[in-house]
Specification:
- The protein is α/β, with parallel strands linked by helices and 690 residues long.
- The chain folds into 4 domains: 211 residues; 57 residues, no CATH class; 123 residues, no CATH class; 240 residues, paralog of FGE (formylglycine-generating enzyme) (Alpha-Beta Complex), CATH 3.90.1580.
- It has 21 helices and 24 strands.
- The strands form 6 sheets. Strands 1, 2, 3, 4, 5, 6, 7, 8 and 9 form a 9-stranded mixed beta sheet that branches. A 5-stranded antiparallel beta sheet has the order 14-15-18-24-19. A 4-stranded mixed beta sheet has the order 22-21-20-23.
- Helix 16 packs across helix 17.
- The longest helix has 24 residues.
- The radius of gyration is 27 Å and the shape is globular.
- The protein starts with 12 loop residues before the first helix and ends in a 9-residue tail after the last strand.
Length: 690
Amino acid sequence: MGEPLSFISVANVEKLIKLLIRMHDEHRAEIARFADVFGDPLQLARFYVEPKCQHHNPADRHEDDEPMSQVRAPAFDVVNDFLRGDFTPLGDGRTQMFILSDAGMGKTSLLMMVRLMHLMAFWPPGYDCLLLKLGEGTLDAIAAHPDKANTVLLLDALDEDPLAWGAIESRLVTLLDATVQFRRVVLSCRTQFFPEAGSDAFGRPGRVEVGGYICPMVFLSLFDDAQVDDYLSKRFPDAWHRRLSGRENPERARAARVVHSMKSLRFRPLLLAHIDDIVEAGARDWNAYSLYQALVDRWLDREERKLRQQRGSSPSKETLWRVCMAVALHMQSRGSRLLPRVELDQLATGFRQLASLEDLDVGGRSLLNRTAAEDFRFSHYSIQEFLVVHALATEPADGSGEPLRITGQMLEFVAYLPRMPALGRLDFAGLQPSTLAGFSFQDVLSDGSLGPRMQLIPPGTFMMGSTPEDQVSVDEQPLHPVTIAQPFALGRFPVTFDEYDRFAMDAGRKRPKDWGWGRGNRPVIGVSWEDAAAYCAWLSQQTGRTYRLPSEAEWEYGCRAGSETRWCFGDAEEDLGPHAWYGANMEGRTHPVGEKRPNRWGLHDMHGNVWEWCEDHAHRSYEGAPADGSAWIDGDAEAGADRVVRGGSWINLARNVRSACRGRYEPDDRVVDLGFRCARVQEAAEPQAS
């Protein structure tokens, strides 16, 4: 038997770099076309660190838990094994593989490396490779390609494909149908955009069922510390005299200190690629929003300085910010990654400063690129996504403009905004529940520890209350529409003893009793409405954000998560057990949070475990209730007026843990089955300087 086929190997990366540097003329035109769509291949190869793959989504775990997948394999080995496998295309999905990860994790870079290995003749003879950015012309390019049986097809960025937005499953099936004749097919996609596909019927890890196809699927892992060090060593190599003396490169040492301050963000390859700018910004408590803001700000600092040196004058950095935000908003409204020259000219008639885009440097560390056709695009889609959110957060809202598609990455930026932007233009309607449920965040407290895990909740309209045949009491009537106009956040879990005890210690308050069941990750109980409100006020002071108890409408909206049934999952009581601790399975006590299934928006324990305080005064019906989701507060209510509680508890029957069920307690009551969860809201936007 001959040597096994080899399509991609880490051993060939150094040779690849040398060949790219000494590129022959026959390759230059193809490399130029390649760079036009995917970026500078030499820059990529010089600093490339091979990622690892795993079968489970890295996000499918609690922040403090061990990863679900401890088995991680080098990505080149995984891809090479797939490409050289001896199975033949049977149209069942085995020759079509998905590579998933979050933004900036290296999906496109991996496909670029596969294509470069082919282009520079490291592949076995007789095999072709076609790399395409998914979009409107993809099916035509696929159909026109010859010798499909000996071609590896690489399809990049399903999440950026306009034809997949709002129709992801049908688009996927169309692509799979169109590519069954190719030797192998690799499709990349952001994890949060990928549909809620079925698992393999045989229970095999790393397989997914899509439209009758059972395809291999892998997730790119976050970098580990060794990979981060490897990248820094490539980026800041030791000079020969330092190698002789054994002294570390001081630039690398400084970069390592700053990278450490990035916490979990340091494990994203895209952000490491901008380490020079991050080092200049210095060590600080970074989050996704502030880090991207710093990167764009450093870039525009350089551009303003260059233009001033070249011309003696230049647009201000603030003007350049507005130019970039206008471009990002325009492209997002069109569902495009490109700004053609003709569209730039049209836009400039209404905003003449846009003409300064022509003068920006599009090489080196620029966050803006230009294609051979003179079209503009941001160096990575996440830059465009950030600029869209930043524009909505900082520019005065005028209520105009096309709806803007929101993505999982934009959700992350929104969560860390210092103020609530006018987000009315963001289209949450096409957002998959799995995208929302897969995203949560934690604010940093003043001592550097983390606050409760919060889940972003989209705006929308829902029917609050119950129909007459379903209600338990008249206080659930009348059924009425409520519109939540702005996104907000709810605690993913009820506040735990651990979280509340930290507040009690800091504020010098008495710790609530636990009835001998234990503290830790169990929901805090025996807290009054005043206690819960005091915790929210303390959390606001600690984080600089605005925390409070949720309104009753916000609570029910979050609990329903788009459902109109008795419980978030449906109407069948026999299905309640996996979702709730209640009278039928309670074992005589509360249970640690998060042990039952979440709803479609990622919220746990909304049914049962503990009743939860809301902001509102208690009312005997919904007659006269606010329709905007705000808390129903009686300005003339007597001190001690009852407050609403929702969700039911471990003591209650199934009917009392329904989404619509209402309860009431006096605000100073402290009982064995009553706790709370927090809401986090963002303040009204004010125009801000960038």
